[in-house]
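Long-time lurker, first post. I've been practising inverse folding by hand and with some scripts of my own, and I keep getting stuck on stretches where the structure tokens seem ambiguous. Below is the full token string for one chain I'm working on. Before anyone asks, I'm not after the true native sequence, just a reasonable design that respects the backbone. If someone could post their per-position residues I'd love to compare against what I wrote down in my notebook.
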């Protein structure tokens, strides 16, 4: 009779077939009712961390794979358990023959002599309650990791389809602004090197330029760049007072050429200065300023940070106008040169929020995007509140008149946040 292939589908070996070869008869594996269990049968008690070796055949050690959960189980056991385990391990290594290495003994792929091995009952498995407690600890650990790894909130998702918003690398742009903003600032002590002009003359010039800027209906970027050019130039070049207005109108001409689409002609600047200077004088001053500043017109002004920080603050039109009103008041003040442009922008928005709400308000999103806390903004904010309170007083009221118009929503009439002057900020 031909041999039947056991692996062939749909074919069964006849019951009378007795050519068993070396295979053990079915009755020999002690599967009869009432027979004692086979010594090497695998059960739950057998899945312990190690098994005792039979004295007659100390060949290999059966080990449970050390998973993360099992490692946590061992770590949670008392010290006595660890000492007991260490003694057991030492006894096992002593029982291993010299020809068998420890790495070989731990290899789970090597067959075990099942006829001679006996399973150990010395080490108890953790109870169900212990396993559930360890699982809960793992979950708590993951939850804590998620809380610690807090990311900066995404404020650019709404502009994902706007190519001009460059959301793919807008963060890199503002990281670069932060790295270079100090190099684009003028020294806050440069007036000490000027022999014919002072802080008050500078304030008069800036206040007048704000009115010129409003009359020409120029972009906001132009005003901030104009003031930056004036301060950087005066920090490097001494100027007599009769030429100070010439420096101002020329700086505005340069800022218009950099920022504006339609640039005012030189004759317009001659007329606005009441013909105090000629066309040639303006062009000569233009060359002098450019050479002094080494043609560096690309500097981060407070305006670029204002736009980003207002977006982080989820601003509306009212908050935006009040923030710009406050920061333009700072342009007139020489003492505000000691603050970085990014700090000025953050403090202006914070002051405006406090003024509109009537209490201290600074969200976590604003703090993360501006990198300034309320405590860091305190000194600058208190100065801004003072400027806001005195905006309509004195002779330099150009900013107040500008923001008192309907175009700017009568923002100048808003009440200042005086409570920031009297109380400190809480961390």
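-- Answer (accepted) --
I ran through it position by position. Result:
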């Amino acid at each position: 009779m031909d041999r039947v292939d056991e692996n062939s589908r749909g074919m069964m070996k006849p019951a009378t077939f007795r050519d068993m070869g070396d295979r053990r008869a079915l009755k020999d594996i002690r599967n009869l009712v009432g027979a004692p269990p086979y010594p090497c049968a695998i059960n739950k008690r057998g899945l312990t961390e190690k098994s005792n070796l039979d004295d007659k055949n100390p060949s290999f050690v059966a080990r449970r794979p050390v998973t993360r959960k099992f490692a946590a189980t061992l770590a949670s056991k008392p010290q006595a358990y660890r000492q007991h385990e260490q003694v057991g391990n030492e006894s096992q290594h002593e029982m291993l023959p010299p020809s068998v290495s420890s790495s070989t003994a731990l290899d789970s792929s090597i067959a075990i002599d099942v006829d001679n091995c006996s399973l150990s009952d010395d080490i108890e498995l953790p109870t169900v309650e212990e396993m559930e407690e360890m699982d809960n600890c793992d979950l708590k650990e993951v939850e804590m990791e998620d809380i610690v790894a807090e990311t900066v909130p995404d404020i650019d998702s709404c502009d994902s389809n706007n190519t001009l918003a460059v959301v793919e690398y807008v963060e890199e742009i503002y990281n670069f602004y932060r790295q270079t903003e100090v190099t684009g600032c003028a020294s806050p002590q440069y007036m000490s090197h000027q022999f014919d002009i002072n802080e008050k003359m500078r304030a008069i010039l800036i206040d007048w330029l704000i009115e010129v800027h409003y009359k020409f209906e120029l972009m906001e970027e132009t005003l901030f760049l104009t003031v930056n050019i004036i301060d950087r130039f005066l920090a490097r070049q001494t100027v007599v007072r009769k030429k100070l207005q010439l420096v101002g109108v020329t700086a505005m001409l340069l800022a218009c050429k950099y920022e504006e689409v339609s640039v005012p002609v030189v004759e317009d600047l001659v007329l606005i200065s009441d013909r105090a200077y000629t066309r040639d004088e303006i062009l000569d001053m233009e060359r002098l300023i450019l050479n002094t500043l080494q043609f560096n017109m690309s500097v981060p002004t407070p305006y670029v940070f204002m736009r980003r920080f207002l977006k982080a603050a989820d601003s509306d039109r009212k908050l935006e106008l009040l923030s710009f009103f406050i920061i333009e008041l700072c342009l007139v003040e020489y003492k505000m040169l000691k603050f970085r442009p990014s700090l000025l922008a953050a403090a202006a928005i914070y002051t405006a929020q406090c003024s509109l709400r009537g209490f201290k308000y600074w969200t976590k999103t604003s703090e993360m995007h501006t990198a300034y806390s309320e405590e860091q903004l305190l000194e600058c904010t208190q100065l801004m509140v003072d400027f806001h309170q005195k905006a309509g007083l004195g002779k330099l009221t150009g900013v107040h008149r500008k923001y008192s118009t309907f175009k700017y929503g009568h923002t100048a009439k808003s009440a200042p946040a005086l409570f920031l002057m009297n109380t400190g900020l809480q961390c």
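A couple of notes from the structure itself: Residues 27-149 form one domain. Residues 128-148 form the longest helix (21 residues). Happy to go over any region you disagree with.
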